[in-house]
Amino acid sequence: METINNAENLFIKKPTSSFASTVITVIISSVVYLKIVRPIINYTNPNSSTSNKIKVPKGVLLFGPPGTGKTMIAKAMANEVGIPFIATGGSDFVEKYVGVGAKRAREIFAEAKKNEKAIIYIDEIDAIGKKRGSESDN
74-100: per-residue pLDDT in tens? Predict the structure, then answer.
């Protein structure tokens, strides 16, 4: 996988994974392709007669136990559509001081805007929303 840019804890890559090269079920890859990848491809294709009629998803939540292929599916989506894959972790947004996590989110979305289109992948997003600091902080 080629790294396009590497900011602090932010990895922007051109993924090499594809649905053909991943070991995921046909049902999962078909659903992801039909509901997410194909609408994006059709929407961005100026020659497509359906580009104005297709509803492109603004976000997708992949969930499941560790090691089930969520990251690989997201990388395959980015590769199939031909857009950068920006990866970060949910813990990058959790800071002791107010505003640091929001600043981090703005930085990530600003980086994505530089690329016009991108998939932003936040691993372990469940870390967001937990209590700041240690148990003794109130």
Answer: 888 888 888 888 888 777 777 666 777
Q: Which CATH superfamily is domain 2-127 in?
A: P-loop containing nucleotide triphosphate hydrolases (3.40.50.300)
Q: Give the pLDDT confidence score for residue 3 in this predicted structure.
A: 46
Amino acid (1-letter code) at residue 3: T
2-32 pLDDT, tens per residue?
Answer: 444 444 555 566 666 666 655 566 666 677 7
Task: Name the strand (E) or helix (H) holding 7.
Answer: strand 2-7
C-alpha–C-alpha distance, residues 61 and 109, integer Å:
17
Tokens of 78: 């980015």
Q: Which pLDDT score, from 0 to 100, does residue 6 have?
A: 44
- Contact by Cβ (8 Å): 79, 18: yes
Contact (Cβ atoms closer than 8 angstroms) between residue 78 and residue 112: no
Instruction: Map residue 100 onto helix, strand or coil.
Output: helix
Integer Cα distance of 77 and 60 in angstroms: 11
Q: State phi, psi for 110 to the nearest 5 degrees.
A: -65, -40
Give the type of residue at 125: I
